[in-house]
Amino acid sequence: MKNKMKISVSNTLKGLCLVLLTAGIMASCSSDNSPADNPTPVEKNITYGLATVSGAWPNTTTYLQGFENLDFTTVGNDKAKELTGTASVVSEGKYLYAKPFGAPANLVKYKFDENGLAQEDNKIVVPGANVFSSIHFKSETVAYATVAGGISKLIVFDPTTMRIEDEISLKDITDKFPEATRTYYQDMVERDNKLFMSVYYENNFIPVNDYAYVAIIDLATNKVEKVIEDQRTGMLFGGPTSNAGMIKTTNGDIYIQAKGTSDNGGNAPSGILRIKNGTTEFDADYFFDLNTATGNICYGIYQVNGKTFTTKVEDETDFWEYKTGNPQFKYFEINLESKTSSGAVPGLPTTYGTRNMSITPLNDSEIAMTIATNDENVLYKLNTDSNNLDKVFTSTGGYISGFKNLK
């Protein structure tokens, strides 16, 4: 009996010693841990959004991805979000909004995780339309968007919830030309609580006339105030890139670029009109004839870092780039005050307009310009102080349908 008690006490003491030893080791290990052993994860700040398109129409795929910086020379699609079909993008703050082509019209809001992976946040669907055309963000909770293809309309939505809050009647615009089979709204600029929106009337794929039209909408009442016209140029549409036809300068003047109608059987030259700050009419004393300044029809107007650009068409008979199978658009620098052009941006290849064109500020002295050729798809960087041009990266996963600086 005594032996059994000794064995029991001995085992108990051994067990207690083992527990205390283990606890001591664990406490020692815990006390040895330092912040250096368990560093706090560094959050990545995704500052750039990229959309690329791969494949041949109609079997195309769009890829979305985000980047913290541009410290790379090539980029593929292996880490990108895949979308069916062709989509262009716009951005507001840290969000990228995709506009896929195809009924019903979708506007899909994406945010990026710390690894640059696009995560769908929410979306808006408009049955009866094919695509979202132009989008204007008024505030964090109010935005305006036009849809086209099938029905055309102007909606008011909340970007935070992606809910349609209202629809602005465009009957006063469409009633101006009842014979028009389609009416398009490609660009929007806001000033003085009014929305200036480009309008293009078409009758069976032909412009109804040689004129340019802009609708003015009172945002206090969400009603069309009037439609103004100018006979010096026409066709505020006709190109492959939406949201590229109107700008507002720092002094509040609005400039509107029109392709003209000469390649559509009309007589209107390609040109730029102006609506001066504080007015709601075209400036009768201002017209910039782009045909004369550049030598051919032009499409688009971009103003970044104090410089203004358009794109000149090399062969206007192949505006849609089907006939020759070659790119036709050349970035040209222009001066809105002197109404002159300093010519093509040196070193930039001729690009496909049908594969989207964009100019995006990188910082106060550098801008990014997309290029798509038969050989490569490249983002170039132009120093606006020195005019030095460098390649930023080459896309191996298709042409660049959108590059955005996420604020």
Automatic annotation (TrEMBL):
What UniProt keywords are attached to this protein's entry? Signal
Name the domain of life this protein comes from: Bacteria
Signal peptide residues are: 1-27
Q: What is this protein called?
A: DUF4374 domain-containing protein
Per the UniProt record, the source organism is Flagellimonas pacifica
The root-end lineage is:
Bacteria, Pseudomonadati, Bacteroidota, Flavobacteriia, Flavobacteriales
